[in-house]
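User: I'm putting together a teaching handout on how sequence relates to shape, and I'd like one worked example. Could you take HTH cro/C1-type domain-containing protein from Alistipes communis, show the sequence you're using, and then write out its predicted structure as tokens right after it?

Assistant: Happy to. First the sequence, then the structure tokens directly below it.
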Amino acid sequence: MKRKKQRRDEILLQKIVLRIKELRSIHGHTQEKLKEATGLNIPNLETGENFPNLTSIAIICRYYNISLDEFFAPMEYPPKKE
């Protein structure tokens, strides 16, 4: 049985990837450290191979002691229509 391909927002994916990298950088963490601490496949998330779901993002937020609001706030996406 062929699986239906999920729709992906590539711009959102790149913003999420950059935010995860930014958080790692702020805390001086490697992909491996974050992977060990969270159990998530961080290299696959950061290459865009896997689109992180909300649960994965929440796990990262818990690890860095930030809210989902704080995770998404810098993104300002999608842009508001004027």
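A couple of points you could highlight for students: Residues 58 and 68 are 7 Å apart (CA to CA). The helical segments are 10-27, 31-38, 42-47, 54-64, 68-72.
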